[in-house]
Amino acid sequence: MYVVLNKSATSEEILELKRFIQKTGHGALEILDGSVRKIGIMGKKEGLGKEELKKFSIVKDVVKIGKPFKFVSREFKKEDTVIDIKGRKIGGTDLVLMAGPCSVESKEMMMETARVVKANGGEFLRGGAFKPRTSPYDFQGLGEEGLKYMREACDKYNLLMVTEVMDTRDIELIDKYTDIFQVGARNMQNFSLLKELGKTDKPILLKRGLSATIKEFLMAAEYIVAFGNERVILCERGIRTFEVATRNTVDVNGIALLKEKSHLPIIIDASHGTGKRSLVEPVTLGCILAGADGAMVEIHQNPICALSDGEQSLNFEEFEVLCGKLKKTIEFKESLRCL
Ligand code: PEP
Ligand code: MN
Fold first, then answer.
1. How far is the CA of 260 from the centre of ligand 2 (A)?
2. Which of 122, 193, 295, 296 could form a disulfide bond with 117, CB atoms 3.0-4.6 angstroms apart?
3. Best mutation site among 181, 269, 274 for ligand 1, i.e. most ligand atoms within 8 A of its Cβ?
4. Residue 328, beta-bridge partner list
5. Do 176 and 236 fall into the same domain?
6. How many angstroms separate the alpha carbon of residue 98 from the centre of ligand 1?
7. What's the domain range around 26?
8. Residues 129, 206 share a domain
9. Nearest ligand to the C-alpha of residue 273?
């Protein structure tokens, strides 16, 4: 349920209404949808009816949302959400490019990668310090040491940091370093993790689960919003299908559909989506045209020596070529919007 406020509502009146909603045990999420101010009422329906809300003169309308995912839906917010992080925007028309190695391997590697990301117009450095590996015998990540290297590289090149959190026990530590928490595909339905991240004040990049439906994906996003953090970025990274020729199958339908169903920004990760270096460029570009707001790409100075995911990582030259094409694709996409 949400309320639509009158244009004349003052900030004191809005605060009074929000306090009233909170006193009944509900969360109150205030948003601006275009020029319309709304308050989402989160939690159980009991104890708060339409009539009580309508007693407030600033309440123009009370609307029920007929979807299981409510506050991430277009029903609640018609305008695209643009997430502002230290002045950098995710969503909207800006190019969102997140690149870096699968795993943080050394300080030198992060410095060199950050330089290349910046030089190619990227604003976000990605890299895993806590790695979700299928085999317990594979490289598990450098932990806090890796976070330090990433932070140093981000500060030097004025980039924003995106790194994965796998466990609620690591949130506090990772929070000291990162700008965006990444929730990996394997943890998309780790509800304890989603709830705790809902209590943080940093954006969450939520990757689609290995075999999650669109509805499950949006419900996972809803968890984070319902627990207090509306700054969620969706990430399509391919799903499991019967096809084994590629590591995963990128759901292009899903990208276009998510844009219809949700106001949240969406990023395409064709590195994990395809698992194959040669497919990263065409699939990334295609998904941008299908509606993705930006791309996440794994890159490595020498992919064959990478400690993880080398076969899907672009080398720096390939990355430069992709960036050039990405810029042109975004310009082309903008030109289509005007038709
Ligand atoms: C990653 O981004 O390095 C990663 C492990 O991704 P995913 O969770 O999509 O497999
Ligand atoms: Mn990876």
1. 28
2. 122
3. 269
4. none
5. yes
6. 13
7. 2-63
8. yes
9. 1
Does some domain include residue 244? yes
77 found inside a domain: no
Work out how many domains the chain is built from and give that number: 2
Amino acid at 64: K
Q: What is the pLDDT of residues 171-209, one digit of tens each?
A: 999 999 999 999 999 999 999 999 999 999 999 999 999
Query: Which of the four pLDDT bands, split at 50, 70 and 90, describes residue 44?
Result: confident
For atom 4 of ligand 1, which residue has the closest CA? 184
Q: Are residue 93 and residue 20 in the same domain, yes or no? A: no
Both 21 and 105 in one domain: the answer is: no
**Distance in Å, CA 147 to ligand 1 centroid:** 16
Please check whether residue 72 lies inside any domain of the structure.
Answer: no
Residue 91, token pair as written in the block: 């969503």
Is residue 87 one of the residues assigned to a domain? yes
What CATH number does residue 266 fall under?
A: 3.20.20.70
Q: Could you tell me the pTM of the whole model?
A: 0.97
